[in-house]
Amino acid sequence: MIQIIINGQPCMAKENSLLLNACEENGFNIPHLCHKEGLSSVGVCRLCIVRVKGMKGLVPSCCTVVTEGMEVTTEDEEICRLRRINLEMILAEHEHNCLVCENSGKCELQNLAYALDVSSPRFPVNKKLRPIEESSEVIARDPNLCILCGRCVRACAEVTDRRILEFANRGPELLINAGLQEPLADTDCASCGACLQACPTGALTVKLARFQGRSWEVKKVQTTCTHCGGGCQIEFWAKGNRLVRAYGVEKEGAENRGHLCVKGRFGFDFVHSADRLSTPLIKKNGQFIAASWDEALDRVAENFQKIKKAHGSDAIGGIASSKSTNEENYLFQKFMRACIGTNNVDFCTRFCHTPSAVALGRAFGGGAMTNSPALIEKAEVVLIAGLNLTEMYPVFADFVKQKVKAGKLKLIVVDPRRIDLVDYSQVWIRPRIGTDIAWINGLMNVILNRQLQDDEFIASRTVGFDDLQAAVKYYTPENVEAITGVRAQTIEDAGMLYGNAPRAAILYGMGVTQHIHGTDNVSGLCNLALLTGNVGKAGTGVNSIAKQNNGQGAGDMGCLPPIYPGGQPVADEVVNQKFSKAWGVPLSKNRGLPNRTWFWKRKESKVFMSWEETRWAAGPISGKFKKYLRQWTLSSCRICF
Fold this sequence. Notes:
The longest helix has 19 residues, at 293-311. The chain is of the alpha/beta class. 33% of the residues lie in helices and 15% in strands. The chain is globular and about 85 Å long. The protein has a five-stranded mixed β-sheet, covered by helices on one side. The chain is built from 22 helices and 25 strands. α10 runs parallel beside α19, α13 runs antiparallel to α16 and α16 crosses α17.
């Protein structure tokens, strides 16, 4: 921190921070339009001008860095006069009709005109109209409301690195152009809406939210995105019990920093889908008819009691959801165990996260990723294996791209496909399917041969190092090439890059875990991190990227056959007695069945209760399995009898 003087008052400011930010953090408001936190500063609107002692003329505070002892004047007669003139020139560029503008009440230009008391510009207003561009399904572009601040251009280039938007033409014909003067829908735009969030006026608006409600008519609620495991913070605008639009939360603590992907920003229409049930349905005479909640719940309870009496509690199973809250999942597994009396409770982690849970638990004592994604800021090398990050977690992928483009991060990408991040990587490992153990051991072989291991960390924090050395001795780069098809030099380069990094992180996904040896794959990645001491500090670790928004929470809440909440085993006598006492009922000590076995035990399992809100099958399945699945679904709905 350094000391500066603002309007005669001594103030503290962060060293090397922008003067505009320093002034506003100390309570001195500076008007501005082209500047936005998180984007580069260009100083084109000239509304943030201030006077700095010792500097010639007035300077744009958004482009001026603070220095020790700097004396600043944020307002005087000349500054205010020039700000109004600059704002009038901006207003004169187009006719700005606020009557039906979607951003009225939220428009930064409108707010500044009010704050600076500019009712109408003194300059001739450009009345030339350009056509509104509406080719995109979600974004409308109105050049007649554009003030050429360039925030959308910088957001597209600096936040997402897509560079779809750019300035075109010169002088009075200057405008924001998409692609090669193409409709937005014909470009490579991913419709993430970063440009829309950056726009200070109504030049970029949400098409689907048109005439659905203005800023003062809506209720604003912050929540967490439900589409992936990224945890992006969203501010929803709601009017009349309907979601109208979504913005990324820019407050401190939101890891997405205001950025969202196309799903998070626009993919909430399912909430109001006509296909969603609004009342319970009961099948009578082969047809579903509407029923009251009391009637539906009574029927469910009666049938559960009949099945328990005839076949026992273990004839019933329940599937929890990784898209439900912790509270809902806790109640669901408690219902299955305390009310139904069975440990047959499971959810989708059985197929995607169990290899990670076993391997990470064995190595580190817990089945979760070791680091928060935010700590990637500290990493110098990231190994991304079996994970298309731009599809699984688009927002985080954009942040990774930013760091690579800034020269602050190097990537090792492991994927048979040429995914998007390959173009940003220093090393691309393209192994044959099913040869992950070989290339992982090959990296460790290189690290050991080059003496890049962390001996102090190994001695103080690990066991079994001699066994590891013996196991990877065979996996020379040449032998790995014969197994995986990856050139020996590529294995050498990747091992050197990861091994030499002071802080290296590993990110992996379903391409690592969805194998018959998925647990071994994750264990290999754990050994790689432990070998180099890349565990237990920021910018390191072994991190699984989840495809569901609350898979970790559902597991922590005990929605798995062998464990209670907190991973406590159901077969442990002490644990069983503790939960029996807490819940006030005797509990089963039998390890429950995982959901993949329920279809094959049709005679024993009479009920299949699903807490999922998705369809039963999400892809091709075997003929025999499909036969059993069809038998279940044709005779049932969410709860099957």
